[in-house]
Amino acid sequence: MSISKRTERETPSTPAKFRRRLGRAEADLNELKTMPSDEKVPIDLLEDCVEPRLRSLKSDFEKEANARSSFLGLDSKWLQTGRYQNRLAHVELMLYLIRRRSEISRNDWVKIGNWQLATYRESCHRLQLSYVKATKPHAELPGVQSVRSILLSTRKAAYNQRDYVDSADIYDAFVPRNVFDTAELRGLLNSDAMDLKAREEMHKIEAGVMAQQPAFPKWCYETFIGYTPGGK
User: Fold this and answer.
1) Cα separations (Å) of 78 from 15, 21, 83?
2) Which of 99, 136, 162, 221 is the most exposed place for a label (fewest CB within 10 A)?
3) Distance between terminal CA atoms of the chain?
């Protein structure tokens, strides 16, 4: 199953065209899952990374398409924004990388892994600094101090991770890097040390982060599937 061409992604989309791309992605996913075992397809990556994101995208798209069709007529301008296009391109890119995994150079896997690691470090740094700034008026509260300490430790741990130098593979490139996924922060988010509103906001942010994982650099989209990620 070939990945759809640039013209199909970047020309004005309609719900019908988008559904066809969804259908091709589903067919590609199912084909990969049913390949003979000697092909050594990484089924766990399909089931853990691709399948849930494709399922969520399809559900969200159909809900919005049906609502807009019922109340706003057949206008499809909402599909020209990056939100749905980027999410589908993310799925298509993952399918491409899995199918063509043996054709991707070791150097490219190294570049992807190091970009992901650098992005993760930046996210840890930004979250820690943002929290310190947002909680400046409440810096002496025990709960605030606990979160600050955990975020600082997470940031330091991220910078202590070693860069990929000589080797990396598809599993390195498909590691979900979640700034919230540390035992200390996870325990805090599930405890009463943080008020309910703050916990709900953190969980919302985490869900948004994980929906984009594993993240890939812009050049991957442009090189491998001929797509330039757009605005939200």
Assistant:
1) 10, 17, 9
2) 162
3) 28
Alpha helix ranges (H) inside the chain? 6-10, 15-33, 43-45, 51-72, 82-99, 106-134, 142-160, 170-173, 183-189, 196-211, 218-220
- Tell me the pLDDT tens digit for each residue of 74-131: 566 767 667 888 999 999 999 999 999 999 999 999 999 999 999 999 999 998 998 8
Tell me how far apart the alpha carbons of residues 50 and 19 are, in angstroms, rounded to a whole number: 17
CB neighbour list of residue 86: distance below 8 Å, 6 or more residues apart: 229, 230, 232
Inter-CA distances, 9 with 52, 86, 230, Å: 22, 10, 11
Q: How far from the centroid of its chain's Cα atoms is residue 154's Cα?
A: 20
Structure tokens belonging to residue 140? 């002496």
Nearest-5° Cα angle at 52, 26 to 36: 55
| Contact present, 44 and 174 (Cβ < 8 Å) | no
Q: Which of 132-136, 144-148, 221-225 has the lowest mean pLDDT?
A: 144-148
User: Minimum mean pLDDT among 50-54, 93-97, 107-111, 211-215: which range?
Assistant: 211-215
Contacts of 66 (CB under 8 A, 6+ apart): none
The answer to whether residues 221 and 95 touch, using CB atoms and an 8 Å cutoff, is no
